[in-house]
Structures are given as C-alpha cells and as structure tokens.
Amino acid sequence: MKVTRRSVLKALTTTMGASALTDSLLSVAASSAPDRNTVIDSESAPNAILWYEQPAAQWLEALPIGNGRLGAMVHGGMDQEKLQLNEGTVWAGGPHDYDSPKALAALPEIRRLVFAEKWSEAQNLVDAKFLGRPGGQMPYQTVGDLLLTFPTPALITGYRRELNLEEAIACVSYTADGIHFHREAFASVPHQVIVLRLTADKPGSLSFRLGFDSPQQSAVSVYPGNTLALQGTGGSAGGIGGAIRFAALARILTKGGHLHADKDTLTIERADEVTVLISIATSYNDYQNLEGDALARAQAHLESASQHSYTNLRQTHLRDYQLLFKRVRLSLGSSDRAATAIAANKPTDKRVAAFQGGSDPQLVALHFHYGRYLLISSSRPGGQPATLQGLWNDSVTPPWGSKYTVNINTEMNYWPAPTTNLLECYAPLFKMISELSVAGKRTARTLYGAQGWVCHHNTDIWRGTAPVDGAFWGMWPMGGAWLCKNLWDHYEFTQDIAALKTHYPIMKSAALFFLDILVEEPTHRWLVTCPSISPENGHHPNASICAGPTMDNQILHDLFGSVAEASRLLNTDSEFRERLSTARKLLPPMQIGRQGQLQEWLEDWDAGAEEVHHRHVSHLYGLFPSSQITRRSTPALFDAARRSLETRGDMATGWSLAWKINLWARLEDGNRACKLLTDLLTPEHTAPNLFDLHPPFQIDGNFGAVSGVAEMLLQSHVGEIHLLPALPSVWTTGSVTGLRARGGYIVDLAWKDSSLSHATVQASISGLCTIRLGERVVTFPVQKGKHYSLDAKLTRISD
Ligand code: FUC
C-alpha cells in the first residue's frame, strides 16, 4: 500500500489513546519529512519493522511476541516452524520460606565486625548464618517448543521474515515451488491465546505435522477437537521440588484438507488455510497457592478464542495493542539522507552489523520503538513483571535464573514505563511490590527483629526476600526501598492521589523497616545501614560488605522524603512524618573525595576499589534515576558525579551502558549519551533480533536505552519541563510525540537544524507549568485537559 507520510500521521491520530498528535504538530512533523509530497512505502517504514532474509538459525535471531503472560519466539523456518513458548508463571520450585532462623542472633556480631573493618570475617558470618535457605532463588523456565514440520520444498525464493511493531505481528513469507506461503503470529491480550495463521495462494497447499517438544517433565497427548496437549511440571532447583503444573494446548482450525492424529502429533494435509490457537495455563494462583486447574484454564481460553474468526481475533488484538503503542512516535531524521535511506533499507541484522551512530539514526528510532514493544508485550495487568529476559526464555537454567535482580535490573526494566507513556505496564510490578511487602515482613522480623518489610538484591516468583548468592553480592537490604521509588514516580507522573493512597501503606512499611534497623556509625554519628554493600563492588579485595554506602543513603533520602510528602498529601500520620524528617537529616550527606569524585562509600575508598571500571554505578543513583544531584541546584556534586562517571569509563555490559546513557543525558551531554547509545547498538551488545546482550541476553539494556533516549529529549525532575536537554549534534532534525513529564503532562516536540521548532504540552491537572529550553524558562497557568502550543522561543502560539 502506498501512502503519504501525512496520511500515515493523520491515520495514527484516530487510534491514539491518552496522547493526541495535535494538528499543528502534525504539520511540523510532516514538513520535517524528507519531502512533504514524497510517497513512502508504509509496509517498509524503517522505524517500525525488523526484517530478515533468512530464518532464525539461533534463538537470538528469532522474533518475540507476547501478551504479558504468554510469549513465543518465532523462528520462521521453511522445513520447520518453531515457536519456543513461555508462560509467565512457569518457574522452578514452589512456595518457600528462604529466611534463616540463625540470622538474628548473628546480626550484632556482623555489625561489630563491619565497624571494626574486619570485612572478610563479617562476610563469612553472613554466608554462614544470614543468607537465605537455600542460598539461591528459583529460575523462570521455558514451557517447550511447538513444532510445525513441512514437506521439504525443492525451490524457495523471496523469503522474508519480519516483526511489525505497528501491529505486534510476526510474519514469514516465501514462494516454494511456485506457491506463495504466508504465516503470521501474534499473542492476544483480549483472547489470552497465541494465534498462528498459515495461508497459501493456491488452494490445498498447506500440509504439516504439529508436535510439542519440551525439556520439562511432561507428556504429549491428543485431545478431542483437533487439539494437541503438552502437560507437565516446573523443574526442581536448590533442593526445592517443582510444584507448578502447566498445560499447553494447540488447536488446529482449517479450511479444507484432512486432519489425522497419531499418538502425540496431528497431521494436516492439503488445507487451504490453517489457524493454530495456542493456549497455555498453570496451577499458579498466587505466590503461596498453586491450587489452580491448569488444564481447565487453558481449555477455557481455547474454547472462548475458538468462537471467533481469525479476522476478529486479529482486529481485537490490534485495537488492544495499538492503544498503547501508538501513544509515542519518534523520528530522528537524518543528517545524511542518502546514507540513511541505504542503511534503512537493509535487513535489521545487517544494519546492526554495520551500525556506526550517525550513519543510521533510524536504527536508533527502531530500537526505541522495539523497546516499547517489548515492554507492552512482556508486562501487562494480570501477568508477572518483566524478568531479566522479559517474558522470553528457552532454558530451564537461564542466566541468573531469568528472575528479578532488584539492585538495578528490575528497576531499569520499568524506567521507560512513565516517560514513554506506558503506565499500564507498571501493573505487574506494583502487584509484585505489594506481595513483597507481605513476604518481606517475615524476613524483616526473622532476620532483623524489625517492623516493616525488606527485600534484598533478588526476588523470584515465590517472592523470596532474604539475601542470596553470597554476602559479597547479596547482603544488600535496599531492593524493596528502591522498588518503592516506582510507586512514587507513578504519583509524580500522574498526580493520581487515589493510586498514591493505595501505595502509601507499602511505602510507609518500607520506611518503618529502616527506622528500626538504621544504626549510628561511630565517627559522625550518622544513621546508616549495616551490614550492606554498594551493589556488587568491592571496596577492598574480596570485600564489599560495609556500612552506609552512598547509594543506600540516597535511596533512603528518597524513600523518607516521598513517604513524608505522601503522608502530607493524604493528610495522615503527622507523627510518623516527623520521625522520618528527623531521621532523614541524620543520613550521611553525599561526599566529594580526593579525586574530585562522588564517593561511593562513607570512606574515600574509590581509588583503591577492587574494580574501578565496575559495571554498577550505584552511587550515581543520586543523578539518575533520582534527582538529588542536578546541574543547577548542586553544581559541585554534579561535577563530582561526572568525574565518577568518567573514571568508571564507558565500556561495560549492556545494562550498564544503558544506565550511563541516562546519566550522560542528566549531565546534559547529548553527544556522550549518543556515543554510548552507539556502543550499545553494535553487535557486541545487540543481537540480530535487537535483544540487548549482557552477554548473554538481558532485556534491561533494551529498556534502559529507551529511557535514555527519552531523557535526552525531555526531562522533568526539577519542577520544570526541560525540552531537548541533551540533543546530540547528529540528530539535527526530528520529532517525538506523547512523552510524559512529571506533573501530569504529555509533551510533543519537534526540532530542525538542531533547534526546537515547536512543542505542545497537554495538562492533566490545572496549575502552573514551567518550561525550560536551554537557559530560557517560561511559566504559565494551565487548565486540566487543555493543550498549549509553543514556538521555537517558547512563546505560546495557541491554547
Ligand atoms: C547483577 C549484575 C550482573 C547481572 C545480574 C543479573 O548481579 O551485576 O551483571 O546483570 O545482576
């Protein structure tokens, strides 16, 4: 289909949800297109399609689809199609209490050893008495593969495999022996099934055998109604028996052809069209209860989806998905149109292989849209939060258990949720935080004799909250406190006081824990955590354990501050608010060390630390995601943070690069942020399917990079909306629509020749709006629901 750019944009406005592209921005965006009258091919729009000329030879080339609960990696083979399947509650183990009964008695001695600087002895004692039982948590696991085996064709031409981010549909098409075949697959939220559709341009051409394969303890059988069933149990790990039961059903619906069943396969011959509906469910009710009937649940979804035509399933899926996806549009234009056109017309794997920054800004835009696609596909109300691999994992023993590492990785997964207008995707995270606030109460009581709740550096589907993986990595009591920042962010971005009221008891209980466990350090009498670590970094050889690392103090500054502010907004708990503000004043201040750096620990140990280039940049939490360090309010700390970041160096694993993109954006250095984005998009850190590589695959880098791009274009953490705070010089022309800013705003903006050309702000509450562009700042009153358009000098051009 040939359409003009303007008609594409116009069409988008009709389906957009909370954000609307205004007519004036529409004209700006349209006029910033290479040529207003140029006809572009919507089917190959380079910012929204990943495509390949060959089937996936390995998992990191396959294309992910997901509905937040069901996930599949589509391989697109010609002899055999493989859909590697996931369901978000298929985990190893079962409900379990990890807390060590020996911990509390050992706590005074651990603290004494830390303050006496006997770090090895303190770590050994944590390992012996304080660590979880077992000392590691349970992994997220694959369900298995659905395999479609086709007769081997003699001659294949015109193969193309793609993932269309506008539609959340993965397609495969080719011509075999003169017949054109097409397959498409999507995961539906409204119908809770994965749908695979096969067609050919000649009737009677579709023949294949359908089977399951799984590494789990499982069995395959044939059910009435052309349905194949895989039923099994999640694995055992760390001495905990596998308790989750799952059922995966695949039903074949055909037009024409013959179907027959063997013991564990279904064979279809000479059909005109085939739809395969895949339904998976488990016995998981919640983290303590596995009494659900997996098969009955899977059958219910299958029966209900079977009542709908393929067209109807597809349309319902599109409506649901596009409501979220189309809220945000990013175009980064090009400084060299000819080069971009050539780069953007290449298959995605070849673009990654050739990527060198300025040469293909549209790949950056594609990566941004893909990151939003991955969040929409892996985190939806009713499902589990995005794990280290989102929803997609082909193993029963994935790296780091593909679980939740809450000393950076899970938080990073959700950085783009508010800024890129995907607040609904927060829902599974908020449910998990709520469950952790219950499970973590037991850990607070058992390990610390404290009130409130705690979660250390990892959690799993069983909501383990005790320290795990060894004292050096796991003795960090701040995971729950950091997660609470997301609850406060939600309020800051939405001003939703009703949601804050729901979240407040969880935040308050997290703060209560720290009021109980903070201790006075002997030198300055500051209130500190002890024992703790600055995540995963040793301040001396083999020693990470310490008291009051900078990150802990920064997180507590935020937690105490946000709980106090929430109690004021909700007009409750005035005495508790007083306790919090007294304790907050006694937290250690951020300190600048001998190299002019922001100190990572209470003592100036940075220069002698075990790894000066360590991937974690924990003490820079104060710069991002927090806003305790800013250019205009804390200039000395701002310079010190930059010094620390420079000393750490650029090169690191995927998620660390992604964090640094956000940090350089907050340092208002767009070119440096862009340099790191370029590093992240090269094959060392980005797989052919654009999954971020730790290596191996970890999705946090995808999400962190989306957040980084948003921070380069728009910031809102100091009570003002800062437009284009870190625009790199290679992004000379571009536009973005639908980003969210704190204070309840939605912002569209466009720029040309590296300067703002136009912005639109939509207010969700009435009040005063402050906007910054460079050194220019304007403030004006806004009314709920109204749009305000500004020109290149921030002059209002219409209300
Ligand atoms: C933390 C990081 C590792 C990895 C793991 C999942 O432990 O230090 O690099 O990302 O989480």
Quickly list its features.
disordered N terminus, alpha+beta, globular, seven-stranded antiparallel β-sheet, binds alpha-L-fucopyranose
Your description of this structure?
By secondary structure, this protein is α+β, with helices and mostly antiparallel strands. Helix content is about 35%, strand content about 25%. It contains 21 helices and 32 strands. Strands 3-8-9-10-11-18-15-14-13 form a nine-stranded antiparallel β-sheet. The protein has a seven-stranded antiparallel β-sheet with strand order 4-5-6-7-12-17-16. Strand 5 and strand 6 form a beta hairpin. Helix 1 runs antiparallel to helix 2 (about 25-30), helix 19 (about 655-665) packs antiparallel against helix 20 and helix 19 runs parallel beside helix 21 (about 700-715). The longest helix is centred in the middle third of the chain and has 22 residues, at about 425-450. Mean pLDDT is about 95; it is low at about 1-45. The structure holds alpha-L-fucopyranose (FUC). Alpha-L-fucopyranose binds near residues 388, 616, 653, 655 and 698.
